[in-house]
Structures are given as C-alpha cells and as structure tokens.
Amino acid sequence: MSPPDYTNDARFDGLYLQIASQTRGIEPLLDTLFSFLRRKSDFFGEGDEKGVERAMDKVNEVLERHRGFILEEKRKEMEKKKKEAAKKEKPKREDDVIELGEDGGFDISNSIDSSAVVGDNSENASDETKQPASTETSPSDTAPRAESKEKQEQDDTPPPLGNGGTTDKYTWTQTLSELCISLPLPPNTRARDLNVIIGKNHLKISLKSSPTPPIVDDTLSKTIIVDDSFWTIEDNSLVLTLQKLNQMEWWDAPCQSDPKINLQKIQPENSNLSDLDGETRQTVEKMMYDQRQKALGLPTSDEEKKMEILERFKKSHPEMDFSNAKIS
C-alpha cells in the first residue's frame, strides 16, 4: 500500500492560514515550522553535523518536488492561454449575423451572444412591429434608478471595519474566503469550560457550568465548510474562524438574527484580490462592479456589453431602420 500523498492536501489550509495571519510573513511562518521540528521531533537527528545535513537534504528534496509542480502548472497555464488566443482568431460564426426580417424590421437574435443582444420571439414579431419601439426610457423606469442613486450619494457612513461589524455579543470581520468572530469571555475561562458546536448552517456556543441559555444559538447566514473551521481562545476571547462554502460572496451578518451591514460599502483589500488567480479575480471584480452599478441604478457590465454591440452595429449600418426592433 502506497503512502498517502500530501502534496496537494488542502485539509490543513485553515490552520496554516491562521498561523500565517499571526506570523505575518513567509520567513516567520517557516521559522515556526522548523522550530516545531527542532523542539518536538528528531528531524535534525542528534543535532550533529550529519543529522543537520540529512535534514537539509530532505528539505531540498521536498522543495525540488514542489518546484516541479510549479513548472508543470506554469506549462499548463501557457497552453491554456495559447488555446484561448487561437479561439479568438477564428472567424466569426455564420450564425453571428443580424438578418433582415420579412416586415423590413430587424430581429436581433440571441445567436449573437447569450450575454449580448436578445431578440424578439418570432411568434410575436408581427404584433410588435406595429408599434415602433421607443428609444427613450420612460420616467417610470428612471425614477427608481434616480432614487437609488440619490440614496447612495446621501449614505456617507464609513465602510465597515474589516468588512464586518459588531453585535451585542461579538465583533466579526471577513474576507472572501472566511469569516472571523471574536467573542469576549468571562475572566479565566478555559477551552474545557466551553461547549462550541460548529455546524454547516448553525452555531452554538455555551458555558458548560452555566445554567443560563447559550451565549449563541443561531442559524448561520450562509453555509460553511465545517472541516476547515475551528476555534481558539486568545486574550480572554473566543476566536472562531469559519471557512465559507461559497468563497466568492460577502456575508451581511454571521447569523440570521444579527444586524446586517451594507454590502455596498465593502472595500476588499488589494492584497486579498492579488492573491487570487486571474480568472477568479476577474469574476470577483465583475461581481463588485455590477453590485455598485445596481446600487446606483446604472447598467451592469452585461447590459453595457449589449448596448455596446448594438451601437457598433448601428454605426456600421446607418442605412438600416431600427425603429421596429425590440431590444431586451
């Protein structure tokens, strides 16, 4: 039976993330690791020169193995970019065409792009062409957007500290991947005095010796990964680190009964975004942009793309009449 492979094991990520957040640097993190091996194991042998050399050889062996993984990932990434570039160079498909309708109007088919311009249903085309589509937005449509924009401009409250908030029991912060709760404890409380139950959708915290109701007994706002979540006691406070299941969304509160924060005010740190891979970072930035646009009553990135495509086509074909076209 072959030994287990730990080269891509993510089970301990939560623990290492907590250590990294406290050591604040790669070198201090490595110091803690080798300090543990030196104090709690025979990794360095008897401490003689040969023992230290064997330890260094083993470290170099592991580093060389992971160097191979990095080079392989880089090679795959380059191949992926080449394939994507090749796809972009292919000629436009035949179905990416806006055709002239029987009634002289233009049916802008969704074959252009599912996220681009969506056309009218062919069964209703004849009825719709009887009434020219208005190119102006009605006052009833603009009113909610203007009201939303005005409300956003008037809301000058500062962004939540740590993208979190404070309840009557604890304070909390969050990143895209995890949520941290700091709950003050009675003096001299030890870990064995606590009963902490972390479920994927529920959190319960109580003192074993206390007849009073639990400190926290509530449903979580969203789902977490239980195996990657943990708790500890620091400075007489219970500190919980909850790993989010969906690591591409913000929470407005840890538990459902907690006061909600304004997600529009969240300002993720650049360092956190830079740690993401290119594709995930683009998705997160798009999500944040769309969120801001909706709050201001403005078009999202997909809606802007639709309008861009239509305007380009109009400029390319000034002889065509779009008054009978219904754009959605």
From TrEMBL:
Region (Disordered), start-end ranges? 73-169
> Bias category Polar residues: which stretches?
131-141
Coiled-coil intervals, chain numbering: none
Presence of the UniProt keyword Cytoplasm in the record? yes
**Where the protein is mainly located, per its record?**
cytoplasm
Tell me the compartments it is located in.
Cytoplasm
Q: Which UniProt keywords apply?
A: Cytoplasm, Phosphoprotein
**Nucleotide-binding: is it a keyword of this entry?**
no
Domain CS per the UniProt entry, residue ranges: 165-255
Composition-biased stretches, type Acidic residues, lie in: 96-105
**Positions with biased composition (Basic and acidic residues):** 73-95, 144-154
One cellular-component annotation, GO = cytoplasm
Q: Which PANTHER family match?
A: NUCLEAR MIGRATION PROTEIN NUDC, NUCLEAR MOVEMENT PROTEIN NUDC
Q: Which family does it belong to?
A: Belongs to the nudC family.
- In Swiss-Prot or TrEMBL terms, this protein is called Nuclear migration protein nudC
